Amino acid sequence: MKLHDPQLLKQACYVAGNWVTAIDDAYTPVTNPSTGELIATVPSLGRDETLSAIHAAEKTQGEWAARTAKERATVLRRWYELIVENTEDLATILTLEQGKPLAEAKGEIIYAASFVEWYAEEAKRAYGEIIPSHKPDARILVSKQPIGVVGAITPWNFPAAMITRKCGPAFAAGCAVVLKPAPDTPLTALALAELADRAGIPAGLFSVITGDAVAIGGVLTESPVVKKISFTGSTGVGKLLMAQSADTVKKLALELGGNAPFIICDDADLDKAIDGVMVAKFRNAGQTCICANRIYVHDSVYDEFTAKLVEKVKALKVADGFEEGASLGPLINAAAVTKVQNHIDDAVAKGATLAYGEPQPEGTHFFPPQVLTEMNDDMLIASDETFGPVAALFRFSDDDEVIRRANHVSSGLASYAYTRSLSRAFKFSESLEYGMVGINEGLISTEVAPFGGVKESGLGREGARQGLEDFLETKYTLMGGL
Ligand code: ADP
């Protein structure tokens, strides 16, 4: 696949302002999940390189934080422009290593860039406050200061956006970042680092290290220099990083697994609900943590909804991400294929009906979209995130009952409800124990809103002004003796 700018395909890590190639010939292959072909190799680095990245981050962060917000904003703005100017190349790299259709990859690059743009603007608004004092000769000042050095660990499902969603606000706030991208998708991360360098992010402020996850994560969490861990990934690894961070009492931002309920009431606009399900379920082949996992359809519209959904699903085209008209690319790896198939087999064994779905072509990572009906709460899908293109339809007949069932999981990231009734809409918005609720909307992600979960789905928010707040400490100064 040809790039306009071949310099964006990096086979080296960006550590402390230098491009570091494999040490002792230790490298990790990056393969295309659609074809299995080798795309590139990246260095397998570990403890030592992570320590030098942290050291450089500490040295640079103070100087970066001392700049005016406007100066930091100018650099971020330039990074944003470079990302947008290089959308085609970045999307090509992203599709090569992740598999999603090229159009979706381009959409992700623009979405990723939007965080850098937003936080370039928001950098200037890290406002403090002056509180009316409790003493006549004193004043109470509250100011905001950057947290300092941040360790970031990101997943493969959004190889660009999960990085800018952390780095945009971190750099805006005056922090430095040492990033470990997912082993499946390091090339997008390294290309973003190249563009950050070109934009004028100072050497050392941003490092990207590929290699041994356990070693890199270990150093990031044990280092007293690192003040915050920002992680997006599985709940299990999130809990592990939380435990590892306890010794140094780090701040934590965790964006972990979801198991989103998608509720369709009897008074819903069914066509709009179908459009909502299509995007909330099948985007990125179902591999997002806000994908609809449990679709609850009111008994009185269940059959009509199922028939309409199947028609839409039949029109999806499963193909290599570079093929014209592809709507679903491959799943990321063989383990993902096995998990999705297990969820389907478990549901069918416990009484579900496969209303639509071609068999999974063995030996590939492609998974044709499936529609399962007559789901019940004993099936794996009811409690475990599928992360694949399976629309699982449950029946319900009462709002209180469906809210109870929707909330009956340990995760609490995204949820959705479709109804034309204003009072029901408010009831769902207020009763669903989730960090995010889409009412009559299936696509809720935007840089201007706070993304994040409750319960075991995580801590902190990314996006919006809350996203900047998460990289700032509050300092109170009592100015006495006045
Ligand atoms: P997934 O199952 O979706 O790959 P993971 O939570 O395993 O999700 O991966 C998300 C990110 O966490 C990746 O960058 C991965 O390399 C990293 N990771 C996995 N295990 C650890 C660990 N023990 N310490 C630090 N990072 C880890």
From TrEMBL:
Enzyme class label: oxidoreductase
Record-listed E.C. numbers:
1.2.1.-
Domain Aldehyde dehydrogenase spans what residues? 19-476
InterPro entries, alphabetized: Ald_DH/histidinol_DH, Ald_DH_C, Ald_DH_CS_CYS, Ald_DH_CS_GLU, Ald_DH_N, Aldehyde_DH_dom, Aldehyde_DH_Superfamily, Succ_semiAld_DH
Q: Which Pfam families match?
A: Aldedh (PF00171)
- Could you state a single Gene Ontology molecular function term? oxidoreductase activity
**Descriptive protein name:** NAD-dependent succinate-semialdehyde dehydrogenase
User: What is the source species?
Assistant: Photobacterium rosenbergii
